[in-house]
Amino acid sequence: MSENKKPLILGIESSCDETSVALLKGFDVLSHVIYSQLIHKEYGGVVPELASREHETAISRVVDKAFSDAPGIRPEDVDAIAVTYGPGLMGALLVGLNFAKGLAIALNKPLIAINHVEAHLYAPFLEFPDLNPPMLCLLVSGGHTMLIDVRGIRDFTILGQTLDDAAGESFDKVARLLKIGYPGGPVIDRLSEKGNAEAVVFPRPYLNKDSLDFSFSGLKTAVLNYTRDKVFTDQEIADIAAGFQASVVDVLEEKVRRAVVSTNHKNVILAGGVAANRLLRHRLRELSEKMDIKLYYPPLKYCTDNAAMIAAAGVLYYEKGWTSELTVPAVPNLRIYDYSYTG
Ligand code: KG4
Ligand code: ZN
Residue 88: CB within 6 Å of ligand 1? Predict the structure, then answer.
């Protein structure tokens, strides 16, 4: 892409508990603001009604800040507005989507409705703009655990997915059982460093099945059974956290290995909030060396929910001429391959 041909895209994300806005020129991030809603911590999970209210009070300030952090860029300069329209919490999605529609009308610019889960796949482009499909993607977030054969933009096949809890969800549920805080992933990641992963060995769910699907709810139940009505020292809690994390990572690594063998892809991307997990990154790095494949994962700030990845998806869509009608609805249970709302 030559410098002046790169589209200038405003990205808006509000599907869960992050109000985020980014300005991208091509895949160059000019500004990126994330307002994380801390209010949910005291409830141990995201409270939908509170999330919408927080988005509502934050959104115009976050948009203003994105522009003031990108000197010389004015709203009328943007080529298009990319916004998440699903999946996510209905009230939360509506705040970002309606704000984006209002801007699109006021500025007379195209709206590009983006599937949040699909956008996670494109986050590595922010760091590696020359990365090209085909590639295998392990998408592991609070809502999804999928192995995806990505052949091109909007051209992919799901090779395997979770039959129950998502990987991130299991981190969050186990952290709640252990009463160590929310969101569980980062806490378990940190705590595991001090723990001995072999002190408590949990099952490796779905590893013996000849399938690329996942199942994590049994693992959570195993932790529940192990911890029920017992009191633990801090060291024992760290050991349980490490044992649980080792089980999840073993399963993810082995399924990635099998998917590489079956697709023969040489590029593997790791995306979604759980991609921030240090043990998972380390083990997949080792695997990539062993299998002579290239592993790409986005920097931490682009792994969890963020608007830069929404704008990156917007860049890819804009270049293909794919824009959306202003009638596009918010779709809380949108599937990754469902384009029936955007054509
Ligand atoms: O992608 P994301 O921000 O939101 C969704 O679209 O779901 O992912 C959030 C999930 C949470 O479940 C959180 O516990 C998990 O990502 N997570 C992690 C880590 N950082 C965030 N899981 C394991 N290790 C981490 N370091
Ligand atoms: Zn996400």
Answer: no
